[in-house]
Amino acid sequence: MLLFAMPDQFTVAQVEAVAALARLELGHDERERLAKQLTDILEYARQVQRIDTSGVAPTASVASVAGAGREDAVVPSLPRDVALANAPDAAVDAGLFRVPRVIG
């Protein structure tokens, strides 16, 4: 259940207000098209809200947990020279990646 009522439609004025906040320059046709598209999205959301989900258990996560309980396996790592081969400024002799300083 929503904590607020969804509007029936998006107006061109609302699209203009959002575009101004996002600092987007939209043409007249774009504003009208976006108002229609956003209104269509609201209608779809209303359709989804009308679906009876009373017999559906709440979902804790949409991510699959397959393999989450697998045992860890020790495998060989990537050889150092292969890992450094594509580095733009690697210290190959020291086995290090050089990166730009970010704190002065």
Provide key terms for this protein.
mainly alpha, 2 strands, Histone, subunit A, flat, two-stranded antiparallel ribbon, 36% helix, 104 residues
- What's the total count of β strands? 2
What does the main sheet amount to? 2 strands, antiparallel
| Estimated structural class | mainly alpha
What fraction of residues sit in β-strands? under 5%
Major β-sheet strand ordering: 1-2
Kindly report the CATH topology of the domain at 12-49. Answer: Histone, subunit A
Task: State mean pLDDT (0 to 100 scale).
Answer: 85
Shape descriptor reads flat
Are there runs of 5+ residues with pLDDT below 50, and where? none
State the distance separating the first and last CA atoms.
50 Å
What's the CATH H-level superfamily name of the domain at 12-49? Glu-tRNAGln amidotransferase C subunit, N-terminal domain
| SS element count, helices | 3
Task: Report the order of strands and helices.
Answer: HHHEE
The helix content is 25-40%
| CATH architecture annotation of the domain at 12-49 | Orthogonal Bundle
* Rg (CA only): 26 Å
CATH class of the domain at 12-49: Mainly Alpha
